[in-house]
Design a protein that fits this description.
Order of helices and strands: EHEHHEHEHEEEEEHHEHHEH
Number of strands: 11
Radius of gyration: 17 Å
CATH topology: TIM Barrel
CATH superfamily: Glycoside hydrolase/deacetylase
Shape: globular
Number of helices: 10
Oligomer: single chain
């Protein structure tokens, strides 16, 4: 069965644990370019196409990187403009953020941008109004609702697979494509990207992936940030818990990425669902 690979294209310092993790007005070391081209080489070597959810901050600074990703046949989608949590924005701020990102990306690749993924999966019960805005400004699908609850994101009991989700106004629906989860001892758990991918051993990732394909007949939606293959990145000032979530397992993450690319047939969201 074909599966899906996605990249959240952002820098090493883009994190949302607390308000002062990074200062958008500062000049930080650039590491996203080298890390992304390394990922692109892995994709090329394994004939993989993926969806890149591009942060507007990255598109503004590294236009040629976005052009190269697009020319390589990967889907360009939106990760917003500023990496602000959706539920900490007003509706007007969010509309401006996602409209600006969409327009910028479309101006770079000269192709319609169909998809959106919120920073830190921050469309929650408190920000479901965002779906109305996404639909209104022209997005075809959203991939922001994590179907389990954590301290930062998620909606407990939300559907685990692609579905049409009626917007908060009840007037329209948008395609919702959640990140993959598995049911383990009656609990819904993440496994296919980010901290979960870095923390779980390979045999567990493979078992959960195969269960989704064979038992639930759904694709796995893998996701990764370029910083997660970067063992030498600078370190943010985080609490012990935040540091664990942000950095645990990075040394072995690139090896897991290569195993996924070699063992699974992978494509973009747009190509898989025919949007």
């Amino acid at each position: 069965m074909q599966n899906i690979f996605t990249i959240d294209l952002e820098e090493w310092f883009h994190a949302n644990y607390h308000d002062d993790v990074f200062d958008s007005s500062r000049n930080y070391e650039v590491r996203v370019i080298e890390n992304t081209y390394r990922i692109l080489k892995h994709f090329e070597d394994n004939c993989v196409k993926a969806t890149f959810f591009v942060l507007g901050y990255i598109a503004e600074k590294h236009r040629n990187l976005i052009i190269d990703i697009h020319k390589a046949g990967h889907e360009i989608a939106s990760h917003g403009s500023s990496h602000s949590l959706v539920y900490e924005q007003t509706q007007d701020e969010f509309r401006e953020d996602v409209s600006k990102s969409k327009s910028l990306l479309e101006s770079i690749i000269q192709t319609k941008v169909l998809g959106y993924r919120a920073p830190s999966w921050s469309i929650t019960n408190d920000s479901l109004w965002a779906l109305d805005i996404l639909k209104d400004v022209g997005y075809t699908y959203d991939s922001s609702i994590f179907p389990m609850k954590t301290f930062l994101y998620g909606i407990s009991g939300a559907p685990r697979f692609k579905h049409e989700r009626v917007t908060a106004s009840g007037q329209d629906a948008i395609n919702e494509i959640p990140p993959s989860t598995a049911i383990f001892l009656t609990k819904t758990i993440g496994f296919s990207g980010g901290f979960y991918l870095r923390a779980f051993p390979w045999f567990a990732i493979k078992r959960f992936s195969d269960m989704l394909n064979k038992n639930e007949h759904n694709p796995v939606i893998f996701y990764l940030h370029p910083r997660e293959i970067d063992k030498n990145q600078p370190k943010l000032k985080l609490s012990p818990t935040e540091h664990l979530i942000h950095y645990f397992g990075i040394k072995g993450c690139e090896k897991k990425l290569v195993k996924i690319l070699r063992q699974y047939d992978l494509t973009s969201i747009q190509d898989f669902y025919g949007f």
